[in-house]
Amino acid sequence: KEIINEKALDGFNITIPHKESILPYLDEVSSNAKHIGAVNTVLIQDNKWIGYNTDGIGFVKGLIEHYGSIQDRKILVLGAGGASKGIVSEMQKFTNHKITVANRTMSRFDNWQIDINAISLTDVQFVLHTFDIIINTTPVGMNTQHSEFIIPVEKICKNSLVCDIIYIP
């Protein structure tokens, strides 16, 4: 914290794997980020670190602008980290369906405060064809350590929209 304060920054972004572990270091957390349990943006104001989560707002706004209504779409999110929580929380405001979230370890859902259908990544292959929108929030694609596909792409419906939120920092 001292190093960042010395640099006189106005704020900074947080990415995998620190979106949840940053929380104890913040002076304030927005109600949205508190509900989600993850922060991706820190604003420094009067030497106070204030955490926000803009993952969901940004992604969903772009999705609806370019894809149209998601109200009647069945949605699958791959991964259960901070970005996933933000996106799912925001998407729930715009869809009639309960969102399905798939993850390697089911225990990852233990601290979720968001109502979802949870499924393991190994079982998701059996239902992939039923989703209109599939969103990858896992680290797959971020670097050579995470380069393997986590789902059998041949089982995705040809009319499905597939999104990947990962970027290489």
Automatic annotation (TrEMBL):
Domain Shikimate dehydrogenase substrate binding N-terminal intervals: 3-42
Quinate/shikimate 5-dehydrogenase/glutamyl-tRNA reductase domain span: 67-139
GO annotations of cellular component type: cytosol
First-tier enzyme category under EC: oxidoreductase
Gene Ontology molecular-function annotations: NADP binding; shikimate 3-dehydrogenase (NADP+) activity
Enzyme Commission identifier(s): 1.1.1.25
UniProt keyword annotations, A-Z: Amino-acid biosynthesis, Aromatic amino acid biosynthesis
Reaction(s) catalysed by this chain's protein: shikimate + NADP(+) = 3-dehydroshikimate + NADPH + H(+)
Name under which the protein is recorded: shikimate dehydrogenase (NADP(+))
Organism for this UniProt entry: Mammaliicoccus sciuri
